[in-house]
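Lecture 7, part B: from sequences to assemblies.

Below are the input chains for today's worked example.
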Amino acid sequence: MHRFPKIALCLIAALLLAVSAAACGSSDGETTDTTATQAAAKSKPASPQEKAAVAQYRDYLEENTAELVAKTKPFVAAVVAGNVAEAKDLYPAARIPYERIEPVAGSFGDLDPRIDAREDGVPADEWGGFHRIEKALWVENTTKGMAPVAKQLQADVEELDEKVKTVKLDPVEIAVGANELLAEVSGSKITGEEERYSHIDLVDFEANVEGSLAAFEAVKPLLDASGNADLSGEIEADFKMVFNSLEPYRTADGFVSYTELTKADTRKLSIKIDTLAEKLSQVPAEIDNNG
Amino acid sequence: MPSIPPVTRRRLLASAGAGAAAVGLGGGGLLAGRRLAEASEEGTGRVPFYGEHQAGIDTTAQDRLHFAAFDLLTEDPAELRELLREWTRAAAEATEGAMVGDVNDVPLAPPDDTGETVGLLPSRLTVSFGFGPGLFEKRGLGLAGRRPEALRPLPPFGGDALNPAESGGDVCVQACSDDPQVAFHAVRNLARIGRGVVAMRWSQLGFGRTSTTSRSQDTPRNLMGLKDGTANIRAEDTNDTERFVWVGQEGPAWMRGGTYMVTRRIRMLLEVWDRASLQDQERTIGRHKYSGAPLGGSEEFEPLPLEAKKPDGHPVIPREAHVRLASAKENDGARILRRGYSFTDGVDESLGELEAGLFFISFQRDPEQFVAIQRRLGRFDALNEYIKHVGSALFAVPPGAMPGGYVGESLFS
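Predicted structure of the full complex, as structure tokens:
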């Protein structure tokens, strides 16, 4: 006796049809090609509520890329001027807006790796962006050779700021992005891998969660309207729980260094993220108007 | 294309001989799955989940184990009850060989079931639940008055080198199966269902059973190469299970038909053991290594000659031999039902030796049965030279549930 899924097998035909329709619908030259986008390809026109969700998130997105450009500028200036101490001070503020909207940045080909690749993520001669400079500042304690890298970074964040203005968004994708930001926390912030030289991982952690919350809030009215107000309330409570769990680590100018966290600390934080993420992962299907 | 894999899995299932035909006739999916489950009961290796006692105790010991202990994160009794309801439902589904949950086919939703047992047989899966002492100490739960007197933390024993991170827990799940992936799947899915209400504290995989709980089974060997559990209680000996395993009138009413579970993660110093001569190994345990017979005897199930002396006046079974100290005769007749598993978890980082041993599990009507035996073993057992107890836990295992009810329901009624 084999294990049988409990949904009728006769649904397969219908599913297959739906999937092929979805796949065809997505081949209209969208810039992103995530799984969610394909599966959620529109077969119905967006409702006013969906349009409002997209508009709300678009505002957030553009606010953050604008902030990214603005905060990267003085950081780059300090690097070009050879001021290590000042560049270190300015680094976290430039990271925050990027970490809030990273999944969208990730949809523009190699722009994300140019801005945010880690040392082991790209061939050595291609490595630039924030983390290359981070290593120079914290490990090599110099800005030597970093001026061209910094100038390229400025150009790249400006390009990102332009590109997001025309990016196509839909509510399901925004909800998927909210989940991706938590996956970022689980995969690289709670492990201390993202900011392995500066150890400001908790700064990124908070920014990822802020970005996730903003994305969730944009689609929340859709979730409530789909008869999931309970889930919606639980998710909001869990977001609060996650933010509260970060408080013990807050300092006057940010957060304690990742190196100060014990295994018990990271375990506590990780369990909270997993709890929130398990619920948040149900949102895309619930708000999918093709579902 | 994103949705292809699940469809492929379903195709695989649909083409599985008789199954396909039955599904074709079946109409509604849920119903079709269930009907199939009933239609081909024979030879499927399915152990009923529901019953007077929880399965996985006196049911025939399977070959693999995945055990997990959880910390409870809530003090809201309603949340705990809901968790137990959900766990019961999922455990019953998994033991039937069905997928867990309802949502497994929505392209944009993560499937409820994690999927790694699709296509696998039920493999005699049993899932058993227990409550640790900590559960009764959480004020908000209001269960202090329900705490069985017998559920006291275990005292320290000689030879203990306990790591708190591998000990204790408010709730436990013991999943046993003949397929390790089926056991793993059960624990993984229950952990996922419980997210936010419980957090896994520690878990243990066991790759081979070291005990026999039925007369139909041969005595297996533990990692020391010794037959283990020759004198174990067998399910067929219902007088023994009634007397030594199941809680009767003495316990709180909610524990009647339940039992107490002790787990001990026993690290074996295998490199040291392997250097001991055959004679030393046999004198340490008190049995012949290959036959399992008591020293001086030739048959595994011969009674232990505890009184017998050698010509030089020394006892045939040395005073500090493991079997003597653990024997019912020398423990006022007390016996326990053992259901342990061998484990290995890679290399001990600080020693460069195998991190391996016995994950000891015993069930008894009162933890005192274990305590009395372990007190003697901890002090005198010749085996202590080769083992260290590194993890320890105690759980009250409630009676079984009937369909429509849930495991642990009696605790709240």
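Note for the exam: The longest strand of chain B covers residues 353-364. Keep this in mind when comparing with the next example.
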